[in-house]
Design a protein that fits this description.
The structure is a homodimer of 220-residue chains. By secondary structure, chain A is an alpha+beta fold. Chain A has 4 helices and 13 strands. Helices cover 22% and strands 44% of the residues of chain A. The first copy, chain A, starts with a strand and ends with a helix. β8 of chain A pairs antiparallel with β2 of chain B, so a sheet runs across the interface. Chain A binds a DNA duplex (15 and 15 nucleotides) through β4 and α2.
DNA sequence: GACTCTATCTCGGTA
DNA sequence: TACCGAGGTAGAGTC
C-alpha cells in the first residue's frame, strides 16, 4: 500500500461531477489499484475514490485514474509532504457474528416470539424472486411467511409483499399470511404493513439469544 | 491525522462482534477522533472502524476505542512499522453536482418539462409513509404527484405508487395522478409504471440547468 | 455478467 | 435526538 500526504485538488467525473478544492489530504493507493482520498474527518467514507479495476497514470504533479465505465478521477498534486509504500501480505479476513442470519435462526427455533402455536416449516423457502426467510404453519393450517430484518423499514415490507404474492400462486400454500419480524419496526413500515394486510412484530434479540443459551444448557 | 502502519489484531464488539487476525494494516486516526483500519484491498470500506465521538485509550501495545453506545474496538499492536502525524487544516468540502435534489428544484421551477399547464404546489409534500418529491395542480384542478430520480427504476415506480395510495386517502386531493421524472427511465420501470396507471417522463438535466441559467440572467 | 440483498452501511436533512 | 431517504452506495452471494 502506498500512502501519500499531499496538498491537492481533485475532480471526479462519472456517475456525478464533484470537485474538491485545494487542501492537505491522505491519498491511499492499495495493492489492487484502488485509490482513495481521505480528509481529516469521517472514519469511513473517502472524499473521493476509484475502485478497482482502474488505470492510474502518474504524471509530474498529476494523477489521472480512469476506469472502463468512463469515470475519471484527477488529482492535482500541489505539494507532496510524504510518500511511502508498505508491503502488506494478504491476511485472513474478518470474522463477523450477530446479524440478520443469527436472528433468523433464533426465530426458527423459537416461533413463540412471532406468535402462538406456530410450526416451523423451512428456512429460505424458495420463490421465483428470491427466498423467503422463514415459513411456518399455524395451528389452523394456514401458512405464515416471515421476513426477518435487524431494522424493519419500508423496503422490508415491500419485499415481504412480493414474496406473499408469489407464494399465493401456489394452491398448496394459499392463502399465505405475512409478518415482518425485526428488532425494531419503523413507524412508516408499520403503516405500510397494515395497508398491505401484513403483520409486524418487534423481537428482542438479546432475550432470544439468552433463551437459546438456556435451552442448550438444558439439553445437555 | 495520524497514520500508523502496524502488524495488529483487532476485535470489535457493538452492533455485531467481529475479530480480525494478525496482519499488517494501515491505522488512521483522524482529527475528529475517528479510527479506521484498512487492509491493502478495497478503496472504500475499512475492515474495522469507530466513528466520532469516541474515546481512545493508548496503552503499550494496545489501543482501546469506546463510545457512548457501549461499542468497543480493541487494537493489539504486535509490531509498529511506521507512525507519523500530519497537520491538515480544514479545507473546503466536496462540491457535488447532478443529483436528485438539484433535479427536483429545477423541475419545481420548470413544470413544463413534466407537462403543460402545471401549477407548482409543494416540494416534499408529507404523507404518513414519507414525503412526495413534488406536488402540482393541473389545469383541470387534478393533483399530480411527481417522484424525482436521477435514474428511474422499478423501486421509484413502487415508491410513487405508495405515495399515490396515501394521497388518495385525502378527499381534498383525490384522485391524484402520478409521474416518475428522471434523466433516464429504465424500460422495466416504464412497463411497471404503465401497469400501475402511472406516467413517466425523461427530463434533460443539462437543458433544465441551462434554461434556469438563462432565466436567472434574464431576471437580472 | 446481471441481479439481489445486506450493511457496525454512511451521510445529510428534518421534525 | 430520532427518524427517514439517498448513495458515485460498497460488498457478498446467487443465478
Amino acid at each position: 500500500m502506498r500512502v501519500v500526504i499531499a496538498r491537492c485538488r481533485v475532480t471526479y467525473a462519472g456517475r456525478l461531477s464533484a470537485t474538491l478544492p485545494s487542501g492537505v489530504r491522505l491519498l491511499m493507493v492499495k495493492a489492487d489499484g484502488c485509490v482513495a482520498i481521505h480528509a481529516d474527518v469521517g472514519a469511513y467514507k473517502p472524499l473521493n475514490w476509484m475502485t478497482a479495476p482502474n488505470h492510474l497514470v502518474e504524471e509530474p504533479g498529476r494523477w489521472v485514474v480512469t476506469n472502463a465505465k468512463g469515470e475519471c478521477l484527477t488529482i492535482d498534486l500541489e505539494e507532496v509532504l510524504s510518500d511511502q509504500a508498505h508491503a502488506m501480505e494478504d491476511s485472513a479476513g474478518l470474522v463477523k457474528d450477530g446479524v440478520e442470519l443469527a436472528l433468523r435462526d433464533l426465530l426458527a427455533a423459537a416461533p413463540d416470539a412471532i406468535g402462538p402455536d406456530l410450526e416451523f416449516v423451512q428456512r429460505e423457502y424458495p420463490t421465483p424472486i428470491g427466498p423467503v426467510d422463514l415459513l411456518f404453519r399455524g395451528a389452523d393450517g394456514q401458512m405464515l411467511a416471515v421476513e426477518v430484518k435487524r431494522k424493519g423499514e419500508i423496503d422490508g415490507v415491500e419485499q415481504l409483499a412480493r414474496y406473499i404474492e408469489q407464494l399465493d400462486h401456489d394452491p398448496r400454500l394459499r392463502p399465505v399470511r405475512g409478518i415482518l419480524a425485526a428488532t425494531r419496526v419503523a413507524p412508516q413500515a408499520q403503516v405500510l404493513a397494515a395497508e398491505r394486510g401484513l403483520g409486524w412484530v418487534e423481537v428482542d434479540y438479546e432475550q432470544l439469544k439468552g433463551e437459546r443459551a438456556e435451552l442448550t444448557l438444558f439439553e445437555l
